Amino acid sequence: MSRSKWDYRDVSVLLQAIRNFLLGRKHTLHPRFPCKVSARSIPCPDIPRSPEDKYSAMYYHQRNPFQSVKPPVVAPVALGNKKEKIKPESVKLPGLPTPGAPWWWDGHSYFECTSPAPEPPPPPCPPMTQAAPREPTPCDPPPAPTCPPSVPPCQPCPPCPPSPDKRC
Q: Region Disordered: start and end of each range (predicted)?
């Protein structure tokens, strides 16, 4: 192992061999040492030059950024005869005005040239008709008691005669 001009902070040769054996490969150190760091060969920026780039040759009162900005040039358009106004009665629209088609920013129109929607399947149940609400059926009258009370309700009841279905 040759010695480089830069001393790396690493373990001894014996511990390096043990580490490489346990890793199953040669251990590579992180590139934080100067000779391992990649070269920083970034080209110099190419900035466009202007008359105002050398402020050292200008006095402070001559440094006016507003003079470098000019208003936009507006060309006169149609400076001829004035057009006649359109009467509002002559303009008839089929409905309320709506905005135009949206701009497709991604260049894809997902809604063009599509087949019509398929017919929906028939409902599983027939549609309900609006009929008059049904009257509730009258209930049967309650059955008569098999053992009518012969004594007032606050006193114990006498035993009932036995019946064939053993109900009282």
A: 115-150
CA 89 to chain centroid: 47
Q: Which residue has the tokens 């997902």?
A: 110
In angstroms, rounded to a whole number, what is the distance separating the alpha carbons of residues 21 and 18?
5
- Cα gap 3→10, rounded to integer Å: 13
Residue 75: band (very low, low, confident or very high) from pLDDT cuts 50, 70, 90: low
- How would residue 1 be classed by pLDDT, with cut points 50, 70 and 90? low
Check if the beta carbon of residue 31 is closer than 8 Å to that of residue 37: yes
Among residues 32, 20, 33, the alpha carbon closest in space to that of 12 is found at: 20
Q: Is residue 151 within 8 Å of 157, Cβ to Cβ?
A: yes
pLDDT exceeds 80 at position 5: no
Q: What is the DSSP letter of 96?
A: S
**Angle at the Cα of 21 (from 19 to 26), degrees rounded to 5?**
70
Task: Indicate the helix (H) or strand (E) that contains 94.
Answer: none
Q: Measured between alpha carbons, how far is 42 from 47 in angstroms, rounded to an integer? A: 15
Which pTM was predicted? 0.21
Q: Which amino acid is at 146?
A: T
Cα–Cα nearest to 68, from 81, 46, 57, 52: 52
